[in-house]
Amino acid sequence: MSNMLIKMKVNGTEREVLVEPEDRLLDVLRDDFGFKSPKEGCGTGDCGLCTVLMDGKPVLSCVTPAFQARDREIVTLEGLNDDPLMKNIEASFRDHHAAQCGFCTPAMEIMGYDLLKAKSKPTKEEVKEAISGTLCRCTGYYDIVDAIYDAGGSE
Amino acid sequence: MAVSVENYITELQKKAERGELLYIGQSLKRIDDLEKALGSPIYTNDLIPRNTLYAKLVLSKHPHAWIRSIKVSGAAAHPGVRAVLTYMDVPGINESAAIVPDRPLFAHEKVRSTGDIVAAIVAEKEIRAMEARDLVEVEYDPIKPVFDPIEAMGADAPKIHESGNVAKHMRVAKGNIDAGFNEADVIVENTYKTQFQDAVPMETETAFVVPHDDRLLIIGSMQSPHNTQASVAKVLGWPLERVEVIQAVTGGAFGPKSDETPGDVASIAALGALKTGKPVLMSMDRRESMIAHTKRHPSIIKHRTGVKSDGRLTASRVEIYLNGGAYASLGVMVIIRATFHANGPYEIPNVLNDGYKVYTNDTYAGSFRGFGAPQAIFAAESQMDEIARKLNIDPLDLRLMNMLRPGKRTSTGQLMDDSCGLPECVDAVVRSSDYRKKVAEYSTQSGRVRRGIGMAILHHGNSLGPENNDYAYVYLNVDKHGIIHLGTALTEYGSGAVSGIAQIAASVTGIPLEHFVIDRPDTDKHKESGATVASRVTVIGGNAAKNAAIKLKERVISFAASLLDSNPEKIKLADGYAFSTDNPEKTITWNEIAKRSFKAGVSLDVVGYYIAPKCIWDPDTGVGSPYNQYTFGAAVAEVEVDVETGELKILNFHVAYDVGKVINPAQAIGQIYGGSVQGIGYAVMEELIHVDGRVANPNLKDYYIPTSMDIPDKFIPILIEKPGSMGFHGAKVIAEPPIVLPGPAIRNAILNATGMEINGLPITSEKISMNYAQHE
Ligand code: FES
Ligand code: FES
């Protein structure tokens, strides 16, 4: 199998990386570029913890081959550190004690961000739907739903 | 800010008067690494450098077989592979068991389950290690397996271990069981069954090992660094001090990370690191974790209860058979807790409980949040509703008549004092849910979609009790900037409990929480403090933190007295200031005190220690006081059931827990939410299915855990405070109990809705609709 040199924009910076066909986007982001916020909870596309934004849409980076990100724009939580909406979301997660072990938190925050971008004041039901593919084993979701809900409409 | 100096001083004095409770009962934000660094690289797998090698496991293909040969040459020759490890590569003792020495790290001669580790591959890339797994050739001679625990106890059952198939028998006996049944007007007999549950911490078990000089540095995801250190040292044949273990921020644990698996992953990475001279990461993928780590024991529980026609319980005979899988693990402790709690939170004069943890050829079961209580209380609380039904009295009235309250005695004869808040818990959920009105209204429905309401209650012995010595060390080290480093080998894996004990230290000293940081647990720095299990951080660690804080306060006061030219007796500390009651206007800040003490060479560093009073009980009968104090709880579930499709909605869920004294309300409620939702998963959807000893659904596609769409719309958590004898100002444990009640409460609500008794978990839609079809 041949290796490919591909380009992608990651968190605002143009990057080049040599990938093998079987390489996962998750590993390229974590190991090659050092962005550790996407987590591996299952590796099979079933937990949502590896979620990143590709051209602005959430994708599961554990089941996305790295070469599919060629010429695309990828954003992880690290790329949103200075975004005012993400800052609100993060503050709200702290206020609500919404991170227990914290392992799901980056993905939850990304899903919250994606929802609030599209709809600044969603209902709680809409928040629950937005995070329904992202698993958390610690919180029972209540504090996470409240955190995202309260971060809404506060811009 | 326009606060007058005078007001401020009065405020300060008021705060000083609150003394030890200065920062207690407030939802302060956590101060551990997690809180500071969310989203940044903090977990084990975030930390590894690029030249790391990766290890993967070769698991047994058979549930029970002799190993005739293992050939690794093909795997070793695979591109990228740097080492293949088997039992032959273990320089020390090939043993990875926690208590009973029944489990080798690498299978040798025999496999007893499909979770047995036969070999491990160390390679440059994870994918190369995965490919090479299939190239390890193992020849097996299958032996007849056994999967049912009761069958496994039979005389002619296949022998899994030389010692026989009962790993542990536990008995509780009080009064005269035969007399109790003779006295009864009615006898109710039922059998209850529960399933394998997987803890599914979102981060799997993982350890990263760096060889350096003649030592190893191990960073990993675990509940007890000292247990991991001991496992690795034993496998290597090294003295403990050559192995340093640091617990990384840990992405959930729930029990399996206190059992044997963290030792396995660390030992395998350590062997790989020594063989290659390179850092090695052994990070289980989800499949490996779900097959190879400990799960919740499936159970068969037989209840026979004698009762007077007015509802008074006279006798309770319970037999518990836990399917332990192939190894003992901490399961030998699980059966103790299960047997102690088997009759539920009731006073029953005559009791006989026998609990067995039995070896089978399923993958092994062990430590998991609740530790035997979820099975025991599911059976006990289902049985109460069956008794109520038989006598035609309300299940609530039956409970009120028999339940523990001050002056009553448990199944071991332990007297309940004022710290028993069970009546208050029951009252709270009954009111909150409008139980009385609804239970009557719902019991006469017909039609396809029906509503029901059900309840369940519990007592939960706190901390280790009969399981082990219950002690902890907490260090408070002060640097010149006034930062107080709280160090302990007790670990944080999500609950915020370690931050909670810092809150206690802050309250005792009068130095605000923001001056504290929590150091990572490290075997080089912190003395062993027992594993972080049984929700024991707040109670045991909290007392050690209090004892450390008292010492720190003494030192600060005597040093501040010299700075303020006053007597130590007159010095008060509050909100980060010290002042003398003679002259309260003259204050000195904590930072200043710390700086000056550093300059003066006066160390403020202290260590606090606490050991719980010994629990006295008779090992043959269980009679005595196996736990120093109990948490109490009550839950009411309201459900809607479509009897034809089996679709089940949990409309609302009310819970009340007597937590003694709340240290941090938001964190306590976080534990209640999280534990309850895990309990709902156990009740209605989760089952790790074994078919002939092979796990059929070791992935998150086929093993369902609750998503945000599965939680009740309305969830009402209530905290009750009836101080216990042990924790800080009476604090009791809260992390474990909430997982226990959803199972029986939901089961009893379905009974109320439909008249169908479903005596096995999980209560899935298929089970409901099948039951209904048979019922009609
Ligand atoms: S790790 Fe990608 S979905 Fe679970
Ligand atoms: S906080 Fe632990 S998985 Fe969500």
Fraction of residues in helix of chain A: 25-40%
What is the CA-atom radius of gyration of chain A, in angstroms? 16 Å
**CATH third-tier fold name of the largest domain in chain A:** Ubiquitin-like (UB roll)
* Secondary structure: number of strands of chain A: 5
* Shape, per Cα inertia axes of chain B: globular
What's the short version?
The complex is a heterodimer of chains A (155) and B (776). Chain A is built from five helices and five strands. With 155 residues, chain A is an alpha+beta fold.
Textual characterization of the structure:
The complex is a heterodimer of chains A (155) and B (776). With 155 residues, chain A is an alpha+beta fold. Chain A has five helices and five strands; from the N terminus they run ββαβββαααα. Chain A has a five-stranded mixed beta sheet with strand order 2-1-5-3-4, sandwiched between helices. In chain A, helix 3 (105-118) runs parallel beside helix 5. The model of chain A has no long low-confidence stretch (mean pLDDT 95). In chain B, helix 10 runs parallel beside helix 11 and helix 11 runs parallel beside helix 19. Chain B is globular and about 85 Å long. In chain B, the strands form seven sheets. Chain B has a seven-stranded mixed beta sheet with strand order 3-5-1-12-9-10-11, sandwiched between helices. A five-stranded mixed beta sheet of chain B has the order 7-15-14-13-8, with helices on both faces. A four-stranded mixed beta sheet of chain B has the order 16-24-25-28, with helices on both faces. Classes of the chains: A alpha+beta (155), B alpha+beta (776). At the A-B interface, helix 2, helix 3, helix 4 and helix 5 of A face helix 18 of B.
